[in-house]
Amino acid sequence: IVALFIALAHLNRDRSSLILFADSLLTYVPPMRGEAQLFRILKALLDDPSAHYRQTSLMMSFSDIEKQLQRASLCVVISDFLDDSFGYMKYLQALSHKHELSCLRVRDPLELKPPKSSLFTLQDLESRQIYYPSSGDQMSQGQDAWSSQMTSRGIFAMDMTTTACSLAVIKAMIQQKSLGSRRRLRVK
Fold first, then answer.
1. pTM of the predicted protein model
2. What pLDDT score does 181 carry?
């Protein structure tokens, strides 16, 4: 999805930038135009994927991002938004006041509709904790509050699954943004 956004920016001759974060900023590629920038961002995305499996602190990351972005920008945050607290919401709202902000929440289809049998386990790649889910209700509990929080703060938000077509997600996002709608849209 990130590569498609960057390619669209390149085709429009817009500047593009990349910020990767976990508990702090991992990678920052400053905004520039051109084909060389496209390849710098793709290289940063492909470098050292093991560094991206650290514990995420959205609050610290959004605070750092706010300091890095000087000019008003289009910011697309792609995350699972799984954080122990909703404390990051005030930093996200501060970002939305200065920048045009869109949030894509990525979820695994097993989170949304787990198998009927409890004969499977899930492992959190950040904390390495293993979960033994007993029902789908418990797996998505608390995360449904996310969409209402985003909407109430006027932040554009979308859900997508890991199996969704990236092009369809971007197309749906552009359509919703052009309609001026700030409601949540789910793409499967």
1. 0.76
2. 46
